[in-house]
Every structure is written in C-alpha cells, then in structure tokens.
Amino acid sequence: MLKSRGILQTFCRYKHGKNHWSRLENKIYTKDRAMANFDDFYKNVFGNRWNSMRVALLCEHKYVAMINNFGDVEKTAAMLERDGAMNIRDVYNISKKNQELKGGPVIPKRAKIVKEVSEFIDQQKEIEINELYGEKERYHTSDLKTSSKTKEIDYKKPLSKVIEENSEIDCNRVVNPDFGNAGLQEFVPATKIKGMEDWLLESDHYQYYSNTADFPLKIEMVQEFKVPENLQLFTYEKGNISSFRTPSRCSTGVFSHFLMDGASILPPLALDIQPNDYVFDACAAPGGKSLLMIQSHLPKVLISNDSSLGRCNRLTKLMNQFIYEFGENKSKHRCVIRNEDARITSEFGSYDKVLVDVPCTTDRHSVNVDDNNIFKTGRIKERLRLPELQSAILTNCIKLLKPGGSIVYSTCSLSPVQNDGVVHMALSNVFKDHGITMTINDLSLVMQPFFSIMKFENPKGLKYGQMVIPFLPANFGPMYFCKMTRNV
Ligand SMILES: C[S@@+](CC[C@H](N)C(=O)[O-])C[C@H]1O[C@@H](n2cnc3c(N)ncnc32)[C@H](O)[C@@H]1O
Question: What is annotated as the active site (predicted)?
Fold first, then answer.
C-alpha cells in the first residue's frame, strides 16, 4: 500500500512537476530568447545571409591549435601534421603568393552598405523614438541631425582650429536633454528605458552609425602583415571538420597545445607587436589572447588585466598550466596579471600596444548555452548597457597609448552597435574630451590571404573594422576587430 502511494506521488510529480514534458516543451530558454533577439536584429543588418550565419552559430565550432613553446614543440608539431593540420603561417604565405601570381590582391572598398544600413536604422529610429517619447523628441532629433549636417568639419584645418570650431558646433546644437550629452546619439542610454525592459529588443532602442563624424579621421590601408616566427598555429582546411586531440602533459609538466577559436588569433596578431613593446591586455581573462602574445616572445612587458577577480584567478591558472614556472618566475616571462577596471587605469601615454577585447553579447555562447547567458531576464540592464561599458573601456585605453602606439578593439559579437558603433563613439570621445586623433588602420587588404581558411564579412558592410563571420565550412567567429593608431 505504502509502496504504491510512493509510485503515485512520483507519477504526479512527473505529470505536474516542472520537469513534465509539456512544461519543458513550452519553456522559453534563455538561449532561445537570445536567438529571437538576433533574428530580429541581424536579419535587418545582414539580410538573407543571416540564415547561413544562424545555422553555423548553432553547429559545431571550429578551433585552431597553438603549440605551447614551453612544452615539447617538435613532438607536438609532428603530431598535428600527422593528423593532417596545416601551419597557419604557411597557409598565409602561400595564399599571399598565389594572389600575387594572379595579379595581386583586389583593393577592397568600404562603406556603401553602411549608408544603406544607417538610412534604414535612421528610419527605424524616427519611428521608435516617436512611439517611445512622443512628438517632442522628433523635433529634437531632427534638429540635431540638421545641425550636425549643416556644419561639416574641414579636416585639412589645423587641429586647434578644428577643436575650437567643433566646440562651437556643440553649442549650436539642440541637444535632447533626455539623452544626456550624447551629441552623436549612437544609442539611447539604458537608464532611459526603465520599465520597458520586458519587451525591448536590441534593435528597438539602439541607434547607431552616425554618418557625420565630428572628429578628424584618417584611414590608412595596412600593407604588411606577418604571423610572428615564434608562433606555431595549426588549422584544418576549409570544409575539414576534424577536431584536434586533447592537449597532453609535456616533459616540462605544461600542456602541449592550446585550443582556441581560429578567429581569436586575429586581434592579437593585428596588433603587430614588435620586440620590446610594452603591451596592455585590458580585458584579458580567461587568457587565450594573452597566452598567444606571450608565446610570440615579443612583448618586453605584458600586463594582463581583468576587472573580475574570479576571472583573474582563471587567467593565473591558465598561465600556470601553459607557461613553465610561471608562478615562480613571473619576471622571466615578463607577464603581470592585474585586477583593475580598465575604465580607470591611469598609466596614460605608457603603452606601445593595447588590446581591448571587451565583454559583449558573446553571440555563439548566447544561442547555445543557458548558463552565464547575458540574455537572462535578470541581466537585461547589464546587456543594454554593454555599448556604454565598451566605449568607456575603449576610450580610456586609447589614452594609455604612447603617441604612435596602436590599439586593437575586438568583440565576439555580430552587432554593429557593439562593433563599429562603439569605435565611432570612442573616437568621438577622445577627440572631444582630450583632443586625441586616431588613424584607422584598415586591415582588409592584409586579411585577404586568410580567406582560404576563414569567412570574412565584406568590408563594404563595415565602417572601420574587419569581421570573421560564422560559416559552416569554416565555423570560426564571430570576431570583429578594428586597429587604430594614435597620432602624435
Ligand atoms: C571577452 S572577455 C575577454 C576574453 C579574453 N581576451 C581572452 O582572450 O580570453 C571580456 C573580459 O572583460 C572583463 N571585463 C569586464 N569589464 C571590464 C572592465 N571594466 N575592465 C577590465 N575588464 C573588464 C570580463 O571580466 C571578461 O573577463
């Protein structure tokens, strides 16, 4: 009797409990919310191409293997070659040579689509601002648009004159007081959407791509790019979905190789670190990109910084697993782990190279894993504030550069707001607040030899940076990165 009651209770729990199949079927998982959000936003940005990116994001992720120079290098290289992997430096050099034999690379063009996208977003913006804030706001927004259009900056003028005139433009503008001093209006601050969080989608409140740059800007095409001699990075060719062996312990006790998203190698490589450079990795944890920079043996000093203590601990653990005697002899490896908010680091003018790999919507993670997902209902404000956080980190990190020093900004998001939009905001901030001007280093030419192993977004669709997009035969990314150099 007792036994049958137990069975009945279990049955009822199963039938009516939270794990009942009908409940599970109807449950909206956080990763589904993330996908619904991306479907809404990215379809408008990428059109039909979003469908193939979407499939790739949901399928198995592709990795590259970085050989650990503190382990048994030859043995690991031989093992990877035996398994059919190719050295990325060889792939790059051969592709480059082939391009030259075919008459040289095609000079890429930018920014046609940007205009179309921005026009579309402008229309959206008008409609949505009216809906959210009423007619009064339309008056302000259109006023702001006209005033910024009527007074264009002449970039050939001396900097001091430009600053003087720029401040005059600011004074003449009708700035919407509800939007703070955001003259460029890239996005509505998260504080302005209080109470609307439940139904807000990404594209409902962000406004980006201000076509008018109210700062002087030079764009230079980078002509030279090299994978450093000390780095041994291996990949399988496009279409080959073999996976790498699990790293094993070497005779020195460290792991043989490190597996990372293939597109993640590009931001630190784009930095083009030179021997004896002082390097700052602003958002370093869990540490893949810092590890790559250490493996190149190029930096004189690398400060690997992260604002999260827990993640700094993960970073230290990673370094101990891959760098021989890291804990005992940090000075030998010239790598220092620091736990600081990169928005307030104040070593201004100190670094030759800075990497800013910011927290973002981590698109691939968000559509696949519920845990630690930024699309959780409780994290809406944090998510909507991301562009503010990203631009504050980038703005401060630009100030850490020596004149002539370079910075690479990167995200693993497809969102134009978090990518070109944040770069635009930071360029505007450093000019307006500190008179710092930057040159965009356009990497679209030197990235072309990577086309044989990764899928890149057409530079026409981007304003400042490059982007590796998810693609089934080469399922890396997404990874956006933009290189800039501080003018003297
Ligand atoms: C995308 S992850 C960085 C990944 C890392 N670069 C790598 O290659 O492994 C972003 C990191 O930024 C850190 N972060 C967030 N806000 C920060 C801030 N204000 N200053 C410094 N780090 C921050 C997070 O703790 C997180 O570890």
Answer: 412
Q: Which residues pair with 217 in a beta bridge?
A: 438
Contact (Cβ atoms closer than 8 angstroms) between residue 200 and residue 193: yes
Q: Where residue 106 falls among pLDDT bands split at 50, 70, 90?
A: confident
Q: State residue 159's pLDDT score.
A: 33
288 marked among binding-site residues: yes
Whether the model clears a pTM of 0.90, i.e. scores above it, the answer is no
Instruction: Please give the full DSSP string across 216-250, using - where no structure is assigned.
Output: -EEEEE-------TT--EEEPPTT----PPPP-B-
Nearest CA, atom 19, ligand 1: 341
285 lines ligand 1 (CB under 6 A): yes
Distance 311 CA to ligand 1 centre (A): 8
> What's domain 54-111+219-486's superfamily in CATH?
Vaccinia Virus protein VP39 (3.40.50.150)
For 294-323, what is each residue's pLDDT tens digit?
A: 999 999 999 999 999 999 999 999 999 999
- Evaluate: CB of 385 within 6 angstroms of ligand 1: no
Task: Confirm if 247 and 257 have CB atoms less than 8 A apart.
Answer: yes
* Residues carrying CATH 3.40.50.150, the chain: 54-111+219-486
- Find the distance separating the first CA and the last CA of the chain, reported in whole Å: 87
**433 C-alpha to ligand 1 centroid (Å):** 25
